[in-house]
Specification:
Layout: E1 23-24, H1 35-38, H2 41-45, H3 58-68, E2 75-78, H4 80-92, E3 98-103, H5 107-115, E4 119-124, H6 135-141, E5 146-152, H7 164-177, E6 182-186, E7 210-215, E8 228-231, H8 235-248, H9 254-265, H10 267-291, E9 296-299, E10 306-311, H11 318-330, E11 333-334, E12 336-337, E13 347-351, H12 357-374
Parallel strand pairs: 1-11, 3-4, 3-5, 5-6, 6-7
Antiparallel strand pairs: 2-8, 7-8, 9-10, 10-13, 12-13
Length: about 375
């Protein structure tokens, strides 16, 4: 008899960590930092390569805590933000417990809930409503069985932030319907602001039932370090996260933690420099949308190197949507298809932060050509 394996849900977003195309407009990171940007050979040369601590390097936890206005004991360092999302799903959601997630969403955030057996209830946000979370829709998804509400601000794939008033209303609804549940806010893109835009405050200020998750992957340009964190002021939950981390990876690599600490020591100039790059990418993308308004529309993001573009219904029938993706791929261009995130296929996530301005311009130019080649209107029959 064939052995039955437990399986993680598959999603084509895994292609983002495969062989890169010539123009990667599907990724939502900014230009990668180089090891030389952080390397202090004298300091790292003497670093012992033993186990780290299960909670995370104390100095790194203190740096993360300072950046969020919390205590170091509230921080658990994880192997990227995804590790934190999985541990939280595992610790907080038993098989059959309700978990609410806003969709479309980062597919791995949903998958983490699925693999632990949670009953996933979706609070839908839509392109036509600017991906704004509507509390009445959230209310209909909540129940007394809800153990976790998983949101992202700014959201992935849209880059749209959840206003503080909406988060406060969410907390009020949870207090009314499921007072024991936790509100998880993935804040991975929060500090990826544009130019002089203010950085939004962390949702941690909303109360002790709020958990913040983030990483160094998106705003700081260091996804290769695999350093993330979960912040909670619930001591028992924090302890369970530490135990869960020990039971899955024991500890994070000490080299990664040491480099992450170096990054935190230099994070102010790093973020300032990247604000300028992000704004340039945003403006270039906005100009491209205006120039191609007969074919596409978008929801302008609040932060992050990502946005959602929709192929117009008048210009693209379902067949033309498929042809567009094929034509873009043939030109060496990758975008992140909406159906990866639970969105309709004619929507795609466009990343405008990874490439240089020259490469971004070339990639967008290739997308323009793909639009014109595949649009339903004007095609010969």
């Amino acid at each position: 008899m064939e052995h039955r394996m437990n399986r993680f849900p598959e999603n084509d977003i895994i292609s983002l960590v495969g062989t890169p195309p010539r123009y990667d407009l599907g990724e939502s990171t900014r230009p990668d930092l180089r090891l030389a940007d952080l390397l202090d050979a004298d300091a790292l040369g003497g670093l012992p390569l033993g186990y780290g601590t299960a909670a995370g390097d104390p100095a790194l936890r203190a740096a993360i805590a300072t950046a969020h206005g919390v205590a170091a004991d509230d921080v658990v360092v994880t192997a990227g933000g995804m590790h934190a999302l999985f541990l939280l799903a595992f610790v907080l959601c038993g098989r059959g417990d309700d978990a609410v997630i806003a969709t479309p969403c980062f597919p791995l955030a949903r998958n983490a809930l699925a693999v632990v057996g949670a009953n996933i209830r979706a609070a839908r946000v839509s392109f036509d409503r600017g991906y704004r979370l509507d509390p009445p829709d959230l209310r209909s998804a909540l129940s007394p069985r809800t153990k976790l509400v998983s949101l992202a601000s700014p959201q992935n794939p849209s880059g749209v932030a959840i206003p503080p008033a909406t988060l406060r209303e969410t907390m009020q609804l949870m207090q009314e319907i499921c007072p024991e549940a936790y509100l998880l806010i993935d804040e991975t893109y929060r500090e990826a602001a544009y130019a002089d835009d203010p950085i939004a405050e962390s949702a941690l200020a909303l109360g002790p039932k709020v958990i913040s998750v983030a990483s160094l992957s998106k705003c700081h340009g260091a996804p290769g370090l695999r350093i993330g964190w979960a912040i909670t002021r619930a001591a028992d939950l924090s302890r369970q996260l530490v135990v869960g981390k020990f039971n899955t990876i024991v500890s994070c690599p000490r080299v990664d933690e040491a480099l992450a600490l170096k990054l935190f020591e230099r994070r102010a100039p790093i973020l300032t420099e990247r604000r300028v790059l992000l704004d340039a990418g945003l403006q270039r993308t906005a100009a491209w949308v205006r120039a191609n308004s007969d074919h596409v529309e978008w929801v302008q993001p609040d932060a992050g190197a990502l946005c959602c573009i929709r192929l117009g219904h008048a210009a693209f029938d379902d067949g033309a949507v498929t042809r567009f993706y094929d034509a873009a791929a043939a030109k060496g261009i990758r975008v992140a298809r909406g159906d990866w995130f639970g969105e309709e296929a004619r929507v795609f996530r466009l990343g405008f932060g990874l490439l240089s301005m020259a490469e971004l311009g070339d990639g967008l130019g290739g997308l323009t050509a793909a639009l014109k080649e595949t649009a339903t209107a004007g095609r010969r029959t």
